[in-house]
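Hi F.,

I've been meaning to write this up properly since the lab meeting, where we talked about keeping a consistent format for the predictions we share between groups. The idea is simple: the sequence comes first, exactly as it goes in, then the structure tokens exactly as they come out, then a line or two of notes. No screenshots and no reformatting. I'm using this chain as the first example so we have something concrete to point to.
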Amino acid sequence: MLSLLLAGLGFGVLYGIYGLLETQGWVNAGGFRPMFRERTCAIFAIALCAFLLNFYQKRHLHDTVRGIVIVISLLVIAWLIVFGKYIF
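Output, unedited:
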């Protein structure tokens, strides 16, 4: 549950920051491939779970680490299913 929560919050924060930067004129959405913002925010949100994984791994909580790895794997598979067609 922790990795789902972190990935969800991470996606929301990153997506919000990207939108804020776009409204300020610092980022231009033109010229990118379709779904660029969503793909990028989602993959960074999944990568945030690596910090959570490292935190629990240092404390030798192996069952928690196993659960985090399973959730990260499922998130990566979901990312590939949803955004895989936009990559190539």
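Notes:
The radius of gyration is 15 Å.
DSSP finds three helices and no strands in the chain.

If this format works for you, I'll send the rest the same way.

G.
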